[in-house]
């Protein structure tokens, strides 16, 4: 189990493997990390109605224009939560929806074909699980679907072209670079080629024909700035320009124009307010105006508006916020 703590506080298992053998078919040369000169790009953050339940190590997904926020820890990391809340951007209203059947934190989430998926994570006892659940807003019910091949927490998930892609995380052995692919039509998982870099708590986004794995922590709890792109057509990964910053659990979203925005992240006590914009076509990063507060949030893009929701604040993994911020990215 790995919670959002300082690197000194991470528990290490006696059976943990210190290195993972990862085979990569093709790793391309990365372009220089081009970052816009200061001052940062114009971005005006606006406060939105707060989320009803403050939490950290949560997950979010977009479905039919609504942002679903799933699970997480409550204040003080006392216990995992089963709470699920949905935000409707046009009305600026939060709605509490059917909770998870069991509490879950440090999980992945994705929206696909009318359903929200909650993927693995830590249970109420703080142990990693492999259970995957789907939620249909129309029925208001959660149901169990095929589990991940292995227990996993700290993964990141994204949906594209009828499939859900789950990258990274940590199992009972250590931090992994796995890529698991779920097909809801067959209710089966398959494995893609592993990432070159094993990582816990990465950001993940889809743009164009590629999945992007961004940042995270390595198996020694060191923050990463590495970015790797996966091409499903060739089942290969390619190294891309690294983030200007580094860290785990940032809020990540793909904007309507295909650019990827990354905001906040950790781990404590190194929460950041950094906001950076990646342009896949030029393989370049641009710094944008920072968040109003340093946080380890979740987030989602709806069109070209990016939302940053809740998360750990205050330099510890004990304090959480109900704050929600949004910005239109031009």
Describe the structure.
With 330 residues, the protein is an all-beta fold. It has a single domain, classed as 6 Propeller (Neuraminidase), CATH 2.120.10. Helix content is 0%, strand content 40%. It has no helices and 24 strands. The protein has strands at residues 46-48, 59-63, 66-70, 84-88, 93-96, 108-112, 115-122, 128-136, 141-145, 156-160, 163-167, 179-183, 188-192, 203-207, 210-214, 227-231, 236-240, 251-254, 260-263, 275-279, 284-288, 296-302, 305-313, 319-328. It has a 4-stranded antiparallel sheet, with no helix packed on it. A 4-stranded antiparallel sheet has the order 2-3-4-5, with no helix packed on it. It has a 4-stranded antiparallel sheet with strand order 6-7-8-9, with no helix packed on it. A hairpin with a 2-residue loop joins strand 2 (59-63) and strand 3 (66-70). The protein is globular. It starts with 45 loop residues before the first strand and ends with a strand. The model is unreliable at 5-32 and 35-39 (pLDDT under 50).
Q: Can you give keywords for this protein?
A:
single chain, 330 residues, mainly beta, Neuraminidase, 4-stranded antiparallel beta sheet, globular
């Amino acid at each position: 189990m790995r919670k959002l703590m300082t690197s000194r506080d991470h528990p290490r298992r006696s059976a943990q493997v210190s290195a993972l053998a990862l085979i990569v078919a093709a790793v391309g040369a990365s372009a220089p990390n081009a970052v816009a000169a200061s001052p940062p790009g114009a971005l005006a953050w606006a406060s939105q109605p707060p989320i009803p339940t403050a939490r950290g190590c949560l997950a979010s997904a977009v479905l039919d224009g609504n942002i679903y926020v799933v699970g997480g820890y409550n204040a003080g990391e006392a216990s995992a939560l089963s709470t699920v809340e949905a935000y409707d951007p046009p009305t600026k209203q939060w709605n509490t929806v059917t909770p998870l059947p069991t509490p879950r934190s440090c999980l992945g989430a994705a929206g696909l074909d009318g359903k929200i998926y909650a993927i693995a994570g830590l249970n109420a006892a703080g142990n990693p699980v492999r259970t995957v659940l789907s939620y249909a807003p129309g029925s208001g019910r959660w149901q169990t679907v095929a589990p991940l091949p292995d227990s996993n927490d700290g993964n990141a998930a994204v949906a594209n072209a009828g499939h859900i892609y789950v990258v990274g995380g940590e199992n009972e052995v250590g931090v992994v670079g796995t890529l698991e692919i779920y097909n809801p039509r067959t209710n089966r998982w398959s494995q893609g080629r592993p990432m070159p870099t094993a990582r816990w708590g990465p950001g993940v986004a889809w743009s164009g024909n590629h999945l992007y794995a961004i940042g995270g922590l390595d198996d020694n709890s060191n923050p990463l700035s590495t970015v790797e792109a996966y091409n499903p057509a060739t089942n290969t990964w390619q190294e891309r320009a690294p983030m200007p910053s580094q860290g785990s659990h940032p809020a990540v979203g793909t904007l309507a124009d295909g650019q990827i925005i990354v905001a906040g992240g950790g781990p404590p006590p190194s929460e950041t307010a950094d906001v950076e914009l990646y342009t896949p076509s030029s393989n370049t990063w641009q710094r944008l105006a920072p968040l109003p507060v340093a946080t380890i949030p979740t987030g989602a893009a709806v069109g070209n508006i990016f939302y940053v929701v809740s998360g750990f604040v205050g330099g510890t993994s004990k304090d959480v916020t109900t704050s929600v911020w949004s910005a239109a990215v031009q």
